[in-house]
Amino acid sequence: MCGIVGYVGNKSVADILVDGLEQLEYRGYDSSGVAVMNKEEITVFKAIGKLNNLRTELSKHVGEFEKATMGIGHIRWATHGAPTVLNAHPHTCNCGNLVLVHNGIIENYKELREMLTKEGCVFRSQTDTEVVAHLVARMYAKTKDLAEAVRQASKQIEGAYALCVMHNNHKNTLVLTKRNAPLLVGIGEGEFFAASDVPAIIKHTKKAMYLNDNQVVVLTPDKMTLTDSEGNILPQKIEILPWEPVALSKMGYKHYMLKEIHEQPDVIRNILVGKLHAPDENIILNEVKLTKETLKNLNRIQIIACGTSLHAAMVGKYIIENFCGIAVDVEASSEYIYRRTVTDEHTLVIGVSQSGETADTLTAIKQSKAKGSHILIITNRPDSAMAREADSLVPVNAGIEVSVAATKSYTAQLMAFYLLALYMAEVKESVSKEELKNLKAEMMILPQKIEQVLSTTEEIQKSARKYSSTKDFIYVARGINFPTALEGALKLKEISYINATGYPAGELKHGPIAMLDETMPVLSILMNGCVYEKLLSNSEEAKARNARMIALTNSKDEKLDDLFENIIRVPDVDELYSPLLAIIPLQLLAYYIAEFLGKDVDQPRNLAKSVTVE
Ligand code: AGP
After folding, report:
1. CB–CB of 234/226 below 8 Å?
2. Which helix (H) or strand (E) holds 323?
3. pLDDT tens, 407-434?
4. How many structural domains is the chain composed of?
């Protein structure tokens, strides 16, 4: 959840580090720090709060590091120990000669800390990371070889880590290693970059090498040496990153979230390119390896995900069961991994993750893979750890999503599920050719329909003002749009901090209805289809308790005007595709409420974009 950058070369390092951290700020933002190699020795600068505080701190010491050309940096999302200057990275060993930054969790840090304390190490922070600094320094004292010290220390560490290490005795050397946490090297002319994610380096180079678990890399300005955990030299797999620096610009929008919401029609167009050419043609998912035989042998499908991806998974269940007639369970990854799951070689396990890094989902996938299940990953990051575990892959092609609140990656995940479900239905022949053709034809015009929804932004903005002073918000729906209610509520609570909850509308009268009175907004997601009338009745029940009723609908039903004080309209669409349209106004509503309240929309408090701890 934290971000790491490193640089060794011939340019002034401080700006490179801080700019890199800025690009990773979405990963965590409660404190930050850099260590730079000056002529004499390493100097460390840290600050709590947003990155600007580190900038201010550095501006007081410019003379101390302007000539430095090597350094490491870190942006933190606190796990062990509060966000204080002492707990901020980089961390140092006793004598301060060895300095490192770390992303991940050291699970056996208590045992290591106890052992190291007995050996005389003095701990200054409450972090798990500091044990690694002492441990590597201890190994270095024996070996006098920094890479070897990192290798030996790694063998004693349990958990997840990406590490970037420097030492006063090695004035132009960075050593990196990783296990279960991402780390890559960017390759320039006479310079190397290290980063936990592409945005930190893409401005400088597109040439890169991803590290695999337990590999160790030594970087000097003109050389990169890759070894395995035993020190054997390994060949280097260098690739060209398929990224453009412009992806990291707000393109004139006030926030990334708003830009990303407006990108959705194009995202869906991009997804369809190459996967669906015409309604009477088959869906092409080149990296899905599900044969008729595999599908015939399946007893069930389990979909595992967290947060917004979990909501996409819930829609996925609905459509896969509907088109393919296979039983689907959906579960939060964090609940899946600590129980005895009935998963075997007859189970298809689908992991859904924007980042492809979420620790709970990655663990769940590894567990089910070990039980022999076919693993299908739906991710926005085909370069991620999760993608590497996949037997089948559906890339969602949403482009980088910077705002912590997921928007375009959600609609892209829904598209991935539509394509996958129809693909499986084709292979299984579980839906008639005529029906498939109609569904594909409608799928191809979804981007225009989303554009129509986005053209009503001003109306939604007005509604947002109207409800921005509420303390609570209820979203209700039934059937395929129940996950839309959950996702709409999640969007609102994560960026505005308003207490918002999604309920299946039929459940209102089993408890939540007790909360309704004239102060409570209740938003009904009333899409034409099999549950429309039922949901209308549930809305009547809420209205009878004086709730402030809002409809999000594609119905022309005149009854709605009496029942609802506010109606948000979306174009008509097949019920099965309605979650894709219905979520757009809810994203906008959440955005404009948060923006009106002056919240930090792109970086809401306490959150991080990639949750790499369980
Ligand atoms: C959504 O707005 C959140 N940022 C969060 O719920 C997110 O969807 C969740 O952490 C899962 O992340 P992933 O898709 O990268 O696995």
Report:
1. yes
2. helix 307-324
3. 999 999 999 999 999 999 999 999 999 9
4. 3
Show the tokens assigned to 113.
Answer: 């800390």
Report the nearest-CA residue for atom 4 of ligand 1.
405
**What's the gap in Å between 172 CA and the centre of ligand 1?**
38
**pLDDT per residue as tens digits for the range 261-291:** 999 999 999 999 989 999 999 999 999 999 8
Active site amino acids? 2, 609
- What pLDDT digit, counting tens, does each position of 596-612 carry? 999 999 988 888 777 76
Domain boundary among the residues 251, 271, 298 is at: 251
252 CB contacts (<8 Å, ≥6 apart)?
none
pLDDT tens digits for 174-231? 999 999 888 999 999 999 999 998 989 999 999 999 999 999 999 999 999 999 999 9
Say yes or no: 169 and 247 in one domain.
Answer: yes
413 lines ligand 1 (CB under 6 A): no
Q: Is 308 in the pocket of ligand 1 (CB under 6 A)?
A: yes
Q: What mean pLDDT is predicted for residues 135-157?
A: 96
One domain, residues 407 and 438: yes
What six digits make up the tokens of 422? 């129809």
The whole-angstrom separation of Cα 247 and Cα 263 is: 11
CATH of the domain at 190: 3.60.20.10
Share the mean pLDDT of the chain: 94
Cβ–ligand 1 distance for 601 under 6 Å, the answer no
Indicate whether 357 and 332 sit together in one domain: yes
DSSP state of 56: H
Are the C-beta atoms of residues 529 and 484 closer than 8 Å to each other?
no
pLDDT reported for residue 442: 96
Nearest CA to ligand 1 atom 9: 307
Does residue 335 form part of some domain? yes
Q: Which residue minimizes the CA distance to atom 7 of ligand 1?
A: 307
Nearest in space to 161 (alpha carbons), one of 128, 187, 123: 128
pLDDT tens per residue, range 303-319: 999 999 999 999 999 99
358 lines ligand 1 (CB under 6 A): yes
Containing structural domain, residue 343: 262-444
The pairing of strands 184-187 and 192-195 is antiparallel
Which atom of ligand 1 lies closest to the CA of 305? 16
From atom 10 of ligand 1, which residue's Cα is the shortest distance away? 307
Tokens of 85: 């200057």
Q: Where does residue 607 fall: left (phi above 0), alpha (psi -120 to 50 degrees), or beta otherwise?
A: beta
Could you tell me the pTM of the whole model? 0.84
- Taking a C-beta distance cutoff of 8 angstroms, is the pair 608, 28 a contact? yes
